Structure formats: C-alpha cells, structure tokens
C-alpha cells in the first residue's frame, strides 16, 4: 500500500479513509490538493488534513 493515493469526495471523507487505513498500515497522511484534471496542473500547495501512525521524520512540517 506504500505510496498509494486515492481520491475522496470531501475532506471529511479523506480523514475517515486515512483513519481506517491506519488500522492496516504503519502510517497514513490525508492531503488535500487541487489539480486540473484536464491538464494535470497542480493549482495549490498540498494541505495536510490528518495523519495517523508512524511517519518518516520530516514528512509533517512543523
């Protein structure tokens, strides 16, 4: 499951999915980012919505 991305319909859904996935893997991050689906252009910086479990050092700023 390493590096797997899924698209969720809302921030709440992304947080919930991350929390459920954290029961099966060691660490999970839910990120919001807007991408133009026609061009692939990233329209904003990623926003971390939630994180669970053990993550490598430096993944979460702050």
From TrEMBL:
This is Uncharacterized protein. Residues 14-24 have a biased composition (Basic and acidic residues). Residues 1-24 are annotated as: Disordered. It comes from Pararhizobium mangrovi.
């Amino acid at each position: 499951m390493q590096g797997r991305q899924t698209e969720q319909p809302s921030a709440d859904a992304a947080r919930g999915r991350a929390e459920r996935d954290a029961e099966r893997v060691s660490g999970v991050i839910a990120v919001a980012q807007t991408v133009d689906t026609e061009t692939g252009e990233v329209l904003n910086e990623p926003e971390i919505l939630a994180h669970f479990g053990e993550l490598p050092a430096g993944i979460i700023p702050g």
